[in-house]
Design goal:
The protein is of the alpha+beta class. The protein has 12 helices and 5 strands. The protein has helices at residues 30-46, 72-91, 111-126, 141-146, 157-161, 167-181, 201-213, 222-225, 232-235, 244-257, 262-269, 273-290; strands spanning 12-19, 50-56, 60-67, 103-107, 197-198. Helix 1 runs antiparallel to helix 2, helix 10 (244-257) crosses helix 12 (273-290) and helix 11 crosses helix 12 (273-290).
Length: 291
């Protein structure tokens, strides 16, 4: 079975994490971390990415990446693939370094990007690796908050401009913003939709529209296609006035395209769940034979 597609479009912004296989460390020393950052720099340049924040932990990393060219998947294959080759060669290892596929949450630019940029650089403090964000040298915090050794692949302008057009004022306000985030235990990712999107309802609607307009929309996981799905009353407005074909088409679409449970559909139509299940299966079999 083919892997489900990622949600990709020009200008999309993602919170990305990748963890070590079986929770193993993916960095065994400073040289590994420096090498990863060099590979990240090459990837950002090659694929025209915008990196707003990053943090390298021990057995995983966080990135906040914007993709003007809708090329997240191919870029991540480059990043994780090249680093895995380096790690195995350097440390005498073989096999998979990372645990399955990387995770990506689509993020709305604006307040959600700000919140995630803070969440990412606060991770070492929450994990007990450092007392303050500035004590952990393997994140974007010092570059953004103090302008120290800004790596070529990191973009700090957008974040800082959200606080002030004056650089020193912006950096001071950003530091206060991050400090305020250390006192809370909640994450901006707690409100993500279907494990895939972090943003307002308007943003979720816009992403759903992009998915449905795509000529490959049926290849997206069902949970992504049903982010904002039509009501059953919209799919089958007046059950008593539909003919048999309209009813069967509505059952198929509601179940297989929008993920409604058979019992939900049966209750809406006033039918037994077994009847709805049989109709859905027959309709699917007929369509499969036609393709």
């Amino acid at each position: 079975m083919a892997r489900p597609l990622r949600i990709e479009y020009p200008g999309a912004l993602y919170h990305i994490t990748a963890r070590g296989n079986r929770k193993q460390d993916i960095y065994l020393g400073s040289s590994d971390r420096y090498q990863f950052l060099q590979i990240l720099e090459n990837t950002v340049e090659r694929y025209n990415w915008v990196c707003h924040a990053y943090c390298l932990m021990n057995n995983h990393y966080h990135l906040l990446i914007e993709t003007p060219d809708a090329n997240l998947s191919i870029g991540m294959r480059q990043l994780n693939g090249v680093y895995t080759q380096y790690f195995n060669r350097s440390n005498g290892s073989v096999g998979h370094l990372f645990q399955g596929r990387f995770k990506s949450i689509l993020v709305e630019k604006g307040s959600y990007l700000l919140e995630l940029s803070r969440y990412i650089v606060c991770n070492p403090v929450r994990a007990g690796f450092s007392k303050e964000p500035q004590d952990w040298k393997w994140s974007s915090y010092n570059a953004t908050a103090f302008g120290k050794n800004i790596p070529p692949f990191l973009t700090v302008d957008w974040l800082l401009h959200q606080f002030s057009t004056d650089l020193l004022t912006a950096q001071e306000l950003y530091r206060e913003f991050v400090q305020d985030g250390l006192s809370g235990n909640t994450s901006p990712l707690d409100n993500k939709v279907h494990q895939a999107i972090c943003g307002t309802e308007t943003f979720v609607n816009s992403v759903q529209a992009k998915i449905l307009k795509s000529d490959k929309h049926k290849d997206f996981p069902r949970r992504q296609r049903q982010l904002v799905r039509p009501l059953l009353s919209e799919l089958m407005p007046i059950p008593s006035e539909m003919n048999k074909q309209q009813r069967n088409d509505g059952i198929y679409k509601a179940h297989f395209e929008y993920g409604y449970q058979l019992k939900e559909i049966a209750d809406h139509l006033g039918l037994h769940s077994a009847t709805v299940s049989r109709i859905a299966a027959q309709k699917k079999k007929m369509l499969d034979l036609e393709t």
